[in-house]
Write the structure tokens for this entry.
Amino acid sequence: MGMAEKSWELAINRLGIEFLTDMQKNALDAFTKYNNIIIISPTGSGKTLAFLLPLLNHLDKNKQAVEVLIITPSRELAQQIEGVFRNMGTEFKVNSCYGGHSMSTEKNNFILPPAVLVGTPGRIADHLRSGNISMASVNTLILDEFDKSLEFGFQNEMSYIISRLPAVKRKILSSATNLNEIPEFTGIANPIILNYLVQEKDGNNLQINIVKSQKKDKLDCLFHLLCNLGSAPTLVFCNHREAVERISIHLKEMGIANDYFHGGLEQTERERMLVRFRNGSSFILITTDLASRGLDIPDISFIIHYQLPTTDESFIHRNGRTARMHSSGSSYLILSEEENIPTYIKPGYSIYKLSEDLIMPEKPIWQTLYLGGGKKDKINKMDIAGFLFKQGGLNKDELGYIDVKDHHSYAAVKYDLIHSVIKRIRDSKIKNKKIKIEISY
């Protein structure tokens, strides 16, 4: 085994991954042979590892400069990529930058430049214009979810950033859809294309269901459907932010716990909603199409299209959150009497008959605890777990998923124990520091 192989094998062991997909193996191989690579593969198929793993064989531990720049369309995806790279346990520094995050904190992170910088186009461009960081040593550029970046209108920012990368030798572009043409500003010419869209789910693992609403306003139908489906991770997609919030409030008034997610929320709110959904404090997330791409959220049992997606591409990406890889899932389209079955729905769908029973979904067994300390305070998951076991009096099965951010953390605690835990730890210190502790609703 050569050193190159050993680098990524150690990384996937740390990530708890037993084997690589064909796409990831081919990306590793392509990295050694080609300078321009395009990876086209469905959402949830492992593109992040496909471009992160090969980097380990090309980073120089003797350099103190940014060697790899990863541009991604959303804050959440930037955070996710940073987290995956950190969890590989390498000796290389990684940082992310994005709107809604402190510019001064990011600038301080650049005092000792990261080997790998991940960020959204607007924020990276801001740092370049302000002279906060040098890109003179960047030899690898990765344009992740490039099709989404184009859709969001980031062409000018990406063009500006690429024009400021004098030493780039290798460019990798990833996309969840086929690209009709590669924009000239990317500088990508004669690329090797790894296209895995042919392996996208053909519907064998995904059951499409049509649900007929008796009213133009589908709220009662949605409530009835959620009662039929029970307590399982569910995404409810809408086309507009206003609809997301209206539906969330209505369901809560009807006694169904849920959270909502859209681009109009502050970064801390978006983060909190995703954490609660990931750790099981909420089974139902009402969202716009923002949650259809790139987010690190668990396997979803049910997708509900409350409002019909405007394109077949959007329909594919929404459904891509379930029946991922080798799992199965179900997708439900709620249609009012005035709505027809869209042309992109192929034969093979089922008409779902709502049962007359209205059995309320069980409430989540977890609640989320907020702790006002994180990575920058030298606090890690083991510190929090030990703190909650010792001072909080929890047993192992009473503590769930722990998520540590830069300046704060979240921990899932059994719902009926969280108030007693807070009472026990209210005046305690973690790492000799007293921090804010409260329930994260």
